[in-house]
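$ ./design --mode recover --in tokens.txt
reading tokens...
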């Protein structure tokens, strides 16, 4: 796979250190770190995410087996399983819970006794009531926000540039993710001012995808947008294949999805967010209180394009967009 690489900088702020009662770093045995994933254990994306978490921990001076052991649980798209999975991790001796979707955060926050909760990449954590504020999250939760609620509408401008004649935009969303319906409403309003309409199809569970795609195929939209949801991102390769088959531009706010055949990704790099998780884990294990560690937002947004997919569906990226991109798959 040939790539044209361009410089990418990703800056994040740091927080203050306050003692956390569970002095995990004082333990002689490796700290057990629980991870709650929305997707399946055998998916390509889940494996890549686990690898990135491990790499981030190593970058912060931690050695697997000596300093930590990862204990992962997978909901397989069934968000109602998160409370039981969180309880299971707590019973297994987890000292920190890493979470990747809003439902997982809420499940981990309800554990008694409480455990530190680190958000790896969460949509609008303040607006969804997960934390009090970015600067002082309070409670037992800290981590990272995604800015997806801001970057998703921006992709409509890219769509208008690539396909100026587009009239109908298909949207795949998870109604069980509190951030997704809000995004649908926002996009519907914005699209209306651009002379386009929305055809939304719900994917609450993985088995809903075929029906949702069949609905979209029947309505024949001019483009396809997948709203950010941890479980539905697990289905990105199938969605990309559908989009190529139907010659639909497929856009998403996770830049890495272009590796699965998506046409355009615009947003914060998920890999870099996962790498940053190691910083939070190390701080908490060293005694920091998660309530006093500011929740960080990405300060660099990446634009990734797949020129190979563009050729497959009969599109060409304007030279100005190619020049702006951080990464182009040729």
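writing sequence...
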């Amino acid at each position: 796979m040939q790539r044209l690489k361009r410089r990418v900088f990703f800056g994040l702020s740091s927080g203050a250190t306050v003692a956390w009662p569970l002095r995990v770093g004082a333990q002689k045995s490796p700290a057990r770190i629980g991870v709650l994933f929305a997707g399946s254990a055998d998916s390509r994306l889940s494996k890549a995410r686990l690898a990135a978490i491990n790499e981030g921990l190593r970058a912060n001076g931690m050695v697997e087996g000596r300093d930590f052991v990862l204990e992962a649980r997978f909901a397989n798209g069934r968000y109602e399983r998160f409370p039981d999975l969180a309880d299971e991790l707590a019973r297994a001796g987890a000292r920190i819970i890493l979470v990747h979707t809003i439902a997982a955060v809420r499940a981990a926050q309800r554990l008694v006794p409480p455990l530190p909760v680190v958000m790896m990449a969460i949509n609008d954590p303040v607006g969804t009531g997960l934390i009090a504020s970015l600067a002082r999250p309070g409670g037992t939760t800290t981590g990272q926000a995604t800015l997806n609620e801001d970057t998703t509408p921006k992709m409509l401008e890219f769509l208008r540039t690539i396909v100026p004649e587009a009239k109908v935009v298909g949207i795949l969303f998870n109604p069980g993710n509190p951030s997704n319906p809000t995004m649908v409403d926002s996009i519907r309003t914005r699209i209306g001012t651009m002379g386009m309409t929305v055809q939304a199809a719900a994917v609450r569970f993985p088995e809903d995808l075929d029906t949702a795609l069949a609905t979209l195929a029947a309505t024949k939209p001019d483009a396809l947008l997948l709203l950010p949801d941890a479980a539905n991102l697990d289905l990105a390769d199938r969605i990309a294949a559908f989009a190529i088959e139907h010659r639909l531009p497929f856009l998403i706010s996770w830049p890495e999805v272009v590796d699965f055949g998506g046409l355009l990704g615009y947003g914060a790099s998920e890999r870099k967010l996962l790498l940053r998780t190691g910083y939070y884990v190390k701080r908490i294990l060293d005694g920091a209180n998660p309530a006093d560690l500011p929740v960080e937002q990405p300060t660099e947004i990446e634009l990734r394009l797949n020129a190979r997919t563009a050729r497959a569906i009969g599109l060409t990226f304007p030279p100005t967009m190619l020049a702006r991109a951080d990464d182009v798959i040729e």
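exit 0
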